[in-house]
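User: Is it possible to get a 3D structure for a protein together with its bound compound? The compound here is magnesium ion. I've pasted both below.
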Amino acid sequence: PAEERIRNFCIIAHVDHGKSTLADRLLEATGAIATSAKNAQVLDTMELERERGITIKLQAARMTYTAADGHAYILNLIDTPGHVDFGYEVERSLQACEGAILVVDASQGVEAQTIAVVQSARAQGLEIVPVLNKIDLPTAQPDRVAAEVQAILGLDCTRAIHASAKERRGIGEILEAVVARVPPPRAGSRARPLRCLVFDSSYDAHRGVIASVRVVDGALRLGDRIAFLNSGAEYEALELGVLVPHARPVHSLAAGEVGYVCGAIRALADAKVGETLAHAADARAQPPRVAPLPGYREPRPMVFCGLFLHDGDRFELLRDSLAKLALNDASLVYTAESSLALGSGFRVGFLGLLHMEVVQQRLEREYGLELVMTAPSVAYRVTTTRGERILVDSPDKFPEQSAIASVEEPFCAVEIIAPFDCTGALMELCQEARGEFGNMQPAGDGRVLLQYALPLGEVISGFFDSLKSRSRGYASMDYAPSDYRAADIVKLDVLINGERAAPLAMMVHRAAAQATGRRLAARLKELIPRQQFRVPIQAALGAKVIAAEHIAALRKDVTAKCYGGDQSRKKKLLMRQAEGKKRMKEIGRVSVPQSAFMACLSLR
Ligand code: GDP
Ligand code: MG
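Assistant: Yes, that's possible. Here is the predicted structure of the complex:
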């Protein structure tokens, strides 16, 4: 099809405002899928995604639509992940489009994520078509919400479409708006050397990597020698196709079109999201005839945790499972780590908390592993007194205080929308989390929009829960990693009977160190059983003890209460003790139950 008959667009929305339902309605209305009575959503493919109502993996669906002007159009609907953790992938998929349908729930109004996605869509220069969804609800106020969209987002809402994805109202109008208002791909680019943007890639056991591409310039034909410009890897295009929404092979894809490419590509690392695919000959020419598309960067893990097993014997299975997951997830990074208390495991890096939870659930569900995860932490940038700059993502790697010149921590830009009467409580919360105030403005319907810069480390440790409880559940929030700022971060050590308990060490802000140390010491006092001798428990910064407790010595013989005669009871008790020992870890002379470590790790 000619460029002027193609429209590439996506749907953007705050979670639960109806993006997936609307996507299904568009596919239905254009005959791409059969009208279903069930609300099974087509674009959310993974079981986990559907269950949680989130969209993790990007996909594209191609529809044919005959518009009111009598012409047949190819509409490519590009699905974007619905969560901040996948911000970079959202950006790449928006880059594959010329327009976006902005879905706003007419009974809820603009939420934090609405602002964030509109900002990214604008940054990519997309035409935004506002749709006020759920007008079937008695609480819907489309006119009020339209005014809000106009006031907060600065979008012209005079032509905003009133719709109900649930009741199939407004669907035809939306399709017409896509044709009339979303610009076609840039004309004339088919004569240039081939360049495709990889906006998604996934791994298939039979076909290798399947790369979803938007052809930006030129044309890609079956059998072409292709190269990825950032990784430098070369392959042959063995299969090309489009998703309608199920895979349909084609012979070529030209500028403006969206489809997928397979080339027996063995490593996901060769065809990462954001890559530029070109003809190998153009890439190899001296000087090269093509340049990579702008904006490529490596996935950057922001949140880290230790991953261990309840049953240490299954370590091999954990290693293999992680390797399999990583095949399909270029953002997942991990290195082996062994811990005295928890055995062999891995230090794993994630894009954010949701990504972490998804990986955890997949490991438990698909591979039957019982995991022990340490509390999540961020990576600090440490400059040593010798001038070295290192990235510290685990307390193990934190240098001695005397060797540290400075520490920087990751910050993020945060947007919060909440009822006006919560403003004070939420500003206090942000202050406690060491936030820097940015801006405050009315957000319509008695609500306020707060903008802060917050340390990511604070955001990932219980901030969401506090936000919800201090706003009676009404606040919505979105965040995006922004920059690194100087911070007074220290390593808090825990000593049991004078011995360092390495797995309990943590990186904290100096101002929070004492309270955290006290909490940890008090908790350990409860969790560690009495020993034959007095056991001091201390929290320390370097050599300086900042909190201390002790466990009094145990004197009684465990079998004393089994009045002499009952040998079988005595035996049973000793056996149970021996079994308990297996789950004990020795810190110096002290036996600490594994459960105590786990309780402390989750306590932070
Ligand atoms: P997403 O998170 O943006 O993908 O939202 P979904 O499409 O999963 O929809 C979230 C919830 O809103 C689901 O329970 C839908 O059935 C419901 N929903 C979607 N559109 C409408 C609508 O037009 N009216 C009503 N009443 N409910 C809707
Ligand atoms: Mg969805």
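The first strand starts at residue 6 and ends at 13. The pocket of guanosine-5'-diphosphate (ligand 1) is lined by residues 13, 15-21, 39, 53, 82, 133-134, 136-137, 164-166 (CB under 6 Å).
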